[in-house]
Amino acid sequence: MHVVIQRSGKLYKQTYKNGVPASTLTEAVSLGSESGTSITFTPNKELFTCGFNVLSVEKYLENLQFMLPNCEIVLKEMGN
Question: 23-57 pLDDT, tens per residue?
Fold first, then answer.
């Protein structure tokens, strides 16, 4: 999982593996005044052996989007 946070003119990044930080939190100067968080999650095939029901995940994210109208949620199915 990769996490990128942009806030107060700074950009923070950190990577996780199996729920444990795989890198230290790095900080850089951001070029813009925007703020937000980006999380990229790729399932570990050793942990998620049964796979995902994409339609269930999509429905869950649609419900979440409804509750958080100012939040942009993107689901990308990357294939095998």
Answer: 999 998 877 788 889 999 888 888 878 877 889 98
Pairwise CA distance, residues 73 & 40, whole Å: 11
Model's pTM, two decimal places?
A: 0.74
- Indicate the pairing of strand 26-29 with strand 2-7: unpaired
Cα distance between residue 36 and residue 34, in whole Å: 7
Cβ–Cβ under 8 Å, residues 71 and 36: no
Q: How far is CA 41 from CA 9, 13, 15, 31, 32, in A?
A: 25, 14, 10, 25, 25
* Alpha-carbon dihedral sign for residues 17, 35, 59, 55: negative
**Residue type for position 3:** V
